[in-house]
Sequence to fold (360 residues):
Amino acid sequence: MDISEKFISKETVYNGSFIEVEKRKYELCDGREAYRDIVVHPSACAVVAVDNNMNIYLVKQYRAAFDRILLEIPAGKMDAGEEPIECVRRELEEETGLRAGKFTHLSSIAVSPGFCTEIIHIYLAQNLEQGNTNPDEDEHLLVSKMRLEAARKNVFNGTFSDAKTISGVLLAYEYLNIKP
Amino acid sequence: MDISEKFISKETVYNGSFIEVEKRKYELCDGREAYRDIVVHPSACAVVAVDNNMNIYLVKQYRAAFDRILLEIPAGKMDAGEEPIECVRRELEEETGLRAGKFTHLSSIAVSPGFCTEIIHIYLAQNLEQGNTNPDEDEHLLVSKMRLEAARKNVFNGTFSDAKTISGVLLAYEYLNIKP
Fold:
């Protein structure tokens, strides 16, 4: 059974600072037509940076969508024309001041495939060295560390609230244990 | 250091079938002002349904945002006034025909806290019984099963592409192993 849909047309209904919203029309597999709102996002990278003592680096940041401060792994949107590996290297140094000798791609996750094109490319960073922090002008961050083992236990207790951090912590833990 | 931001004002710039887009103005912690585009979403539930043989249930669905068919755990948006536990019970039966004797909340993940209010409440479902499928009119799904152990290995190889599925599989695996 073919469950694909055929794109018919689209209208850009909002053009924001980094997202666009498209109202798209599709032909469904049963022949009917339906509209789908799609948020077009430039995608992003996130990084589980693990030091030699198996601590990971975290950033606290105010998130307007929830009106509270969340504890997350470092991450940021991809610039136009930027490759994921360039983005993750840049974001890690901007947000934490760290440089890494080794990056490993863990996964690329669609955050909400029902309506949004954003993919977050999640990397493991190892062989860390101190560089210089340089956050974006409208970003205010507090950096902290936590044992990876503690972070893994904290995925169930509300310490972390977002998809990339919970996925990243569990993926890094699995990766470092099953492929040592 | 207080890194919170103060809400000043907002304008609804798009009102879609289930998302709204708000352009909000904030006072940053350094006193400057900035605009933030926020996608307001009704939030959703997702479910890792595990049978007595440690298989999990998956659904294939066409995703317009990526123009391809993705393999995901069953999930769906919350109806107005609906509690997460009601939503997850409804979505599991609509999409797979299954009823579960036991639901356990694993985590609630913000899919992309930088711009979107969507939270996905992820549950484990056990003690499964067959009911009746009843998908939404514009949803066309194919249901399949996979061993949880195989799913855990597949988080690294691209079999799954979305945040709730990768988080859900790893959370369920951790939960069933560390709290048996």
Observations:
- Strands of chain B lie at 6-15, 20-27, 33-40, 44-49, 55-63, 68-72, 75-77, 98-110, 119-130, 141-147.
- Residues 45 and 121 of chain B are 5 Å apart (CA to CA).
